[in-house]
Every structure is written in structure tokens, then in C-alpha cells.
Amino acid sequence: MKKQLNKPEGLELAKIIAGCILDKKGSDIVAIKLENISTIADYFVIASANNNIQVRSIAESIDEVLSKQYNIEPLRREGLQEARWVALDYSTVIVHIFLTETRQFYQLERLWINEDNLIKYENL
Q1: Would 21 be classed as within a structural domain?
Q2: What is the pTM of this model?
Q3: pLDDT tens digit string along 105-115?
């Protein structure tokens, strides 16, 4: 039976997700606060991985932790098959896990960052 805890949202959920990414050795973890910029989500959490296996492993770990510990399921999962860029939509937080070279190519952060909405993992 799943634990019934208060369901985290927003920054609290972003912190839990960042911890899951770090546990699987993901790198360059950032959160981008979107609350005053877009209605897509409150935060993006973006991270890099060295290979497709690691991308998939990080995504599966996030999914498992949120499902088992908080009874939270993503609204959508995209990219798991190729595992070059996986997106997990948790409503208030959307997670993007990239192969390092794919992240450099798309530069997703560049589209959403302003002067004060980027949070490095160390500051979450």
C-alpha cells in the first residue's frame, strides 16, 4: 500500500525531484521559477546525464519515488524510448532530463531564464 503523505507541489516538489536526480548522479541540476512568466508550470527542473541509460534511470527513479512515497503520478511522460530528452509533467513541476549534448543543442534554459528565476541545485 502506498504511503499517504501531503502531496508536495511547486518548490517543495522541485527539491524532491532534484534529490532524486542527484541520487542517480545527474549533473548540472537547475530549477527555473515560471510562476510569474508562464501558466505551463510553477517550475522546470532541468538536469543532464551522460548516456541514454542514465537518462532513463533518472526518469524512472523520479517516477518511482514520487509514486511510492507521495502517490503522485505524472500527467505525461515523453521521450523514454529514445532517452535523449525525457520530460515528466507533474503539473506544478515539469522535469527535463537531457543527454548533455542534447541539452547544449536545445539550450532550454535560455528560453525561460530572466535575471532572478534560475535556482541552482545547491540553492534549492
Answers
A1: no
A2: 0.89
A3: 999 988 888 77
